[in-house]
UniProtKB/TrEMBL annotation:
<keyword id="KW-0804">Transcription</keyword>
<feature type="short sequence motif" description="VHIID">
    <location>
        <begin position="20"/>
        <end position="24"/>
    </location>
</feature>
<dbReference type="InterPro" id="IPR005202">
    <property type="entry name" value="TF_GRAS"/>
</dbReference>
<keyword id="KW-0805">Transcription regulation</keyword>
<protein>
    <submittedName>
        <fullName>GRAS domain-containing protein</fullName>
    </submittedName>
</protein>
<dbReference type="Pfam" id="PF03514">
    <property type="entry name" value="GRAS"/>
</dbReference>
<comment type="similarity">
    <text>Belongs to the GRAS family.</text>
</comment>
<dbReference type="GO" id="GO:0005634">
    <property type="term" value="C:nucleus"/>
</dbReference>
<keyword id="KW-0539">Nucleus</keyword>
């Protein structure tokens, strides 16, 4: 939840920026992003927010992450936020150069504190 608050506060400082990319290294069930999607929806200034979430994992074929992406995608559509959810499978930090590019806006990295 603290990450959501930081994202919202930062985007308030840049009102013309409605696009950002979150890279999450420990997404869990993704429930933290449901609140973020609702907050972004309530704050729209004529343009829908565009959010890209990349879940980084070291597990090939993680069905749980596909489910997380489906749930977040359905909720984003319901509240009017454009969401692109991707999974990046990596076993070494150098693979982060494979992060999807082409989206201008803000990049937010999320790490677990455990």
């Amino acid at each position: 939840m603290a990450a959501n608050l930081a994202i919202l506060e930062t985007t308030l400082d840049q009102p013309s920026s409605n696009k950002f990319h979150v890279v999450d290294f420990d997404i869990g069930q993704g429930g933290q992003y449901l609140n973020l999607l609702h907050a972004l929806s309530a704050r729209q200034n004529g343009k829908p927010a565009v959010v890209k979430i990349t879940a980084v994992t070291d597990k090939e074929g993680d069905e749980r992450l596909r489910y997380v992406g489906d749930v977040l995608g359905q909720e984003a559509k319901r509240v009017g936020v454009c969401l692109k959810f991707t999974v990046l499978v990596t076993h070494k930090p150098g693979d982060l150069s494979r992060l999807p590019s082409g989206m201008r806006g803000m990049l937010v990295m999320c790490f677990s504190d455990s």
